[in-house]
Amino acid sequence: MHATSQSRRGRLGLLLLLSLVLVASRSSAQGTFGLQAGYISDIDNSGNVTFTLQFNRAPEFFTCDQYGRQADAFQFYIATSTNIPVFYPPRPYASLIRGGEIQYGNGLIIRNDGPPDNSDPRSDGWGSVRGSVPYTLNTDTLMFCVPAEVLDVQGPFAYSLLLTSFGVATHTPYAGDSGGPIPVPEPAPFSFALAAAITRLCFRKSK
Questions:
Q1: Can you give the pTM of this predicted structure?
Q2: What CA–CA distance (Å, rounded) separates 174 from 184?
Q3: Which residues, given as ranges, of the chain have pLDDT below 70?
Q4: What is the predicted pLDDT for the residue at 197?
Q5: What is the pLDDT of residues 116-133, one digit of tens each?
Q6: How far apart are the first and last CA of the chain?
Q7: What is the rounded distance in angstroms from the CA atom of residue 176 to the CA atom of residue 101?
Q8: What is the pLDDT of residue 87?
Q9: Sheet holding 48-55, edge to edge
Protein backbone atom coordinates (compact mmCIF):
# COMPACT_ATOMS: atom_id res chain seq x y z
CA MET A 1 0.00 0.00 0.00
CA HIS A 2 2.80 2.39 0.87
CA ALA A 3 4.70 1.51 -2.33
CA THR A 4 1.60 2.11 -4.46
CA SER A 5 0.98 5.51 -2.85
CA GLN A 6 4.62 6.52 -3.34
CA SER A 7 4.49 5.44 -6.99
CA ARG A 8 1.33 7.47 -7.50
CA ARG A 9 2.88 10.58 -5.96
CA GLY A 10 5.96 10.13 -8.16
CA ARG A 11 3.82 9.87 -11.25
CA LEU A 12 1.80 12.96 -10.36
CA GLY A 13 4.99 14.89 -9.68
CA LEU A 14 6.45 13.99 -13.05
CA LEU A 15 3.21 14.84 -14.84
CA LEU A 16 3.24 18.24 -13.11
CA LEU A 17 6.82 18.75 -14.29
CA LEU A 18 5.77 17.81 -17.83
CA SER A 19 2.95 20.37 -17.74
CA LEU A 20 5.29 23.11 -16.54
CA VAL A 21 7.83 22.32 -19.28
CA LEU A 22 5.15 22.46 -21.98
CA VAL A 23 3.78 25.76 -20.68
CA ALA A 24 7.28 27.25 -20.52
CA SER A 25 8.19 26.10 -24.04
CA ARG A 26 4.88 27.38 -25.42
CA SER A 27 5.37 30.78 -23.76
CA SER A 28 8.91 30.99 -25.13
CA ALA A 29 7.73 30.22 -28.68
CA GLN A 30 4.97 32.81 -28.46
CA GLY A 31 7.35 35.46 -27.15
CA THR A 32 9.78 35.25 -30.08
CA PHE A 33 8.66 37.38 -33.04
CA GLY A 34 8.00 35.04 -35.94
CA LEU A 35 5.87 34.49 -39.02
CA GLN A 36 2.83 32.24 -38.80
CA ALA A 37 1.85 32.50 -42.47
CA GLY A 38 2.10 34.89 -45.38
CA TYR A 39 1.31 35.45 -49.03
CA ILE A 40 2.78 37.60 -51.80
CA SER A 41 0.67 37.98 -54.93
CA ASP A 42 1.67 38.27 -58.55
CA ILE A 43 1.38 41.69 -60.16
CA ASP A 44 -2.37 42.26 -60.52
CA ASN A 45 -4.29 44.04 -63.29
CA SER A 46 -3.76 47.37 -61.53
CA GLY A 47 -0.01 46.88 -61.45
CA ASN A 48 0.13 46.21 -57.70
CA VAL A 49 1.65 43.47 -55.56
CA THR A 50 -0.24 42.56 -52.37
CA PHE A 51 1.64 41.43 -49.27
CA THR A 52 -0.06 39.63 -46.37
CA LEU A 53 1.89 38.76 -43.23
CA GLN A 54 0.39 36.89 -40.28
CA PHE A 55 2.77 36.99 -37.34
CA ASN A 56 2.72 34.58 -34.41
CA ARG A 57 1.58 37.43 -32.16
CA ALA A 58 0.64 41.09 -32.40
CA PRO A 59 3.84 42.97 -33.39
CA GLU A 60 5.18 45.90 -31.37
CA PHE A 61 6.25 48.22 -34.19
CA PHE A 62 6.00 51.40 -32.15
CA THR A 63 7.88 50.34 -29.03
CA CYS A 64 11.57 51.33 -29.16
CA ASP A 65 14.56 51.08 -26.87
CA GLN A 66 16.94 53.90 -25.93
CA TYR A 67 18.78 53.43 -29.23
CA GLY A 68 15.64 53.84 -31.32
CA ARG A 69 15.44 50.17 -32.25
CA GLN A 70 11.94 48.73 -32.61
CA ALA A 71 10.80 45.94 -30.35
CA ASP A 72 9.64 44.19 -33.55
CA ALA A 73 10.59 45.05 -37.13
CA PHE A 74 10.79 43.48 -40.58
CA GLN A 75 12.49 44.10 -43.90
CA PHE A 76 11.88 42.68 -47.36
CA TYR A 77 14.81 42.29 -49.75
CA ILE A 78 13.29 42.31 -53.25
CA ALA A 79 15.33 40.59 -55.98
CA THR A 80 15.59 41.53 -59.64
CA SER A 81 14.69 37.99 -60.74
CA THR A 82 13.60 34.64 -59.34
CA ASN A 83 17.11 33.18 -59.43
CA ILE A 84 18.36 33.44 -55.87
CA PRO A 85 20.50 31.47 -53.46
CA VAL A 86 19.17 30.38 -50.09
CA PHE A 87 18.22 33.14 -47.61
CA TYR A 88 19.14 36.38 -49.44
CA PRO A 89 18.85 37.52 -53.07
CA PRO A 90 22.05 38.66 -54.77
CA ARG A 91 22.79 42.37 -54.72
CA PRO A 92 21.96 44.84 -56.00
CA TYR A 93 18.41 44.45 -54.75
CA ALA A 94 15.57 45.77 -56.87
CA SER A 95 14.28 47.50 -53.73
CA LEU A 96 13.75 47.11 -50.00
CA ILE A 97 10.51 47.34 -48.02
CA ARG A 98 11.51 48.98 -44.77
CA GLY A 99 9.27 47.88 -41.93
CA GLY A 100 11.87 49.50 -39.68
CA GLU A 101 10.49 52.91 -40.64
CA ILE A 102 6.86 52.29 -39.70
CA GLN A 103 7.49 53.93 -36.36
CA TYR A 104 7.85 57.36 -38.02
CA GLY A 105 4.21 57.36 -39.08
CA ASN A 106 4.64 57.78 -42.86
CA GLY A 107 3.37 54.38 -43.94
CA LEU A 108 5.65 51.70 -45.32
CA ILE A 109 8.77 53.06 -46.98
CA ILE A 110 10.31 51.43 -50.06
CA ARG A 111 13.96 52.28 -50.77
CA ASN A 112 16.63 51.75 -53.36
CA ASP A 113 19.49 49.44 -52.47
CA GLY A 114 22.02 52.23 -52.97
CA PRO A 115 23.97 54.38 -53.05
CA PRO A 116 23.52 55.11 -49.33
CA ASP A 117 21.33 58.11 -48.63
CA ASN A 118 23.54 59.66 -45.97
CA SER A 119 21.38 62.78 -45.87
CA ASP A 120 18.51 60.76 -44.38
CA PRO A 121 19.14 59.52 -40.82
CA ARG A 122 16.28 57.03 -41.20
CA SER A 123 17.84 55.20 -44.14
CA ASP A 124 20.12 52.95 -42.02
CA GLY A 125 22.65 53.12 -44.83
CA TRP A 126 20.23 52.08 -47.59
CA GLY A 127 19.41 54.15 -50.66
CA SER A 128 16.91 56.88 -51.41
CA VAL A 129 13.14 56.53 -50.98
CA ARG A 130 11.33 55.08 -54.00
CA GLY A 131 7.88 55.56 -52.48
CA SER A 132 5.60 54.83 -49.55
CA VAL A 133 2.32 52.95 -49.19
CA PRO A 134 -0.35 52.67 -46.50
CA TYR A 135 -0.90 49.46 -44.58
CA THR A 136 -3.47 47.85 -42.32
CA LEU A 137 -2.57 46.03 -39.13
CA ASN A 138 -5.32 43.90 -37.59
CA THR A 139 -3.95 42.40 -34.39
CA ASP A 140 -1.35 39.98 -35.79
CA THR A 141 -2.00 40.43 -39.53
CA LEU A 142 -0.35 43.08 -41.70
CA MET A 143 -1.52 43.84 -45.24
CA PHE A 144 -0.27 46.33 -47.85
CA CYS A 145 -0.08 46.81 -51.62
CA VAL A 146 2.92 48.20 -53.49
CA PRO A 147 2.95 49.27 -57.15
CA ALA A 148 5.30 47.06 -59.15
CA GLU A 149 7.07 50.14 -60.48
CA VAL A 150 7.83 51.24 -56.91
CA LEU A 151 9.22 47.78 -56.17
CA ASP A 152 11.18 48.05 -59.45
CA VAL A 153 9.92 44.68 -60.72
CA GLN A 154 8.30 43.77 -64.03
CA GLY A 155 7.25 40.21 -63.30
CA PRO A 156 7.71 37.41 -60.74
CA PHE A 157 10.48 38.13 -58.27
CA ALA A 158 12.32 36.46 -55.43
CA TYR A 159 12.44 37.94 -51.94
CA SER A 160 13.82 37.43 -48.49
CA LEU A 161 12.00 38.53 -45.33
CA LEU A 162 13.98 39.30 -42.19
CA LEU A 163 12.34 39.70 -38.77
CA THR A 164 14.14 41.39 -35.89
CA SER A 165 13.59 42.30 -32.25
CA PHE A 166 15.57 45.31 -31.03
CA GLY A 167 17.85 44.94 -34.04
CA VAL A 168 18.57 41.21 -33.60
CA ALA A 169 17.29 38.64 -36.10
CA THR A 170 14.71 36.32 -34.54
CA HIS A 171 14.64 33.68 -37.29
CA THR A 172 16.46 32.51 -40.37
CA PRO A 173 15.13 34.72 -43.20
CA TYR A 174 11.98 33.53 -44.94
CA ALA A 175 12.76 33.31 -48.67
CA GLY A 176 10.70 32.49 -51.73
CA ASP A 177 9.17 33.70 -54.97
CA SER A 178 6.18 35.99 -55.47
CA GLY A 179 2.87 34.55 -56.56
CA GLY A 180 2.24 32.26 -53.60
CA PRO A 181 2.55 31.56 -49.89
CA ILE A 182 5.68 32.55 -47.99
CA PRO A 183 7.51 29.33 -47.06
CA VAL A 184 7.32 29.04 -43.27
CA PRO A 185 9.17 26.03 -41.83
CA GLU A 186 7.48 23.90 -39.20
CA PRO A 187 8.58 24.72 -35.63
CA ALA A 188 11.25 22.47 -34.19
CA PRO A 189 9.64 19.53 -32.31
CA PHE A 190 11.81 20.10 -29.24
CA SER A 191 8.94 20.40 -26.78
CA PHE A 192 7.27 17.26 -28.16
CA ALA A 193 10.48 15.28 -27.88
CA LEU A 194 11.00 16.53 -24.33
CA ALA A 195 7.42 15.68 -23.43
CA ALA A 196 7.85 12.16 -24.78
CA ALA A 197 11.10 11.70 -22.84
CA ILE A 198 9.53 12.84 -19.57
CA THR A 199 6.49 10.65 -20.19
CA ARG A 200 8.72 7.61 -20.69
CA LEU A 201 10.58 8.51 -17.51
CA CYS A 202 7.30 8.85 -15.67
CA PHE A 203 6.11 5.35 -16.56
CA ARG A 204 9.55 3.87 -15.90
CA LYS A 205 9.58 5.39 -12.41
CA SER A 206 6.09 4.10 -11.66
CA LYS A 207 6.99 0.46 -12.26
A1: 0.76
A2: 7
A3: 1-30, 85, 187-207
A4: 47
A5: 999 999 999 999 999 999
A6: 14
A7: 23
A8: 79
A9: 135-138, 141-147, 48-55, 35-40, 180-181
Contact of 191 with 128, CB cutoff 8 Å: no
Question: What integer pLDDT is reported at residue 84 of this predicted model?
Answer: 72
Give ∠ CA 165-171-173 in degrees, rounded to 5: 110
Q: What angle do CA 12, 15, 21 make, to 5 degrees?
A: 145
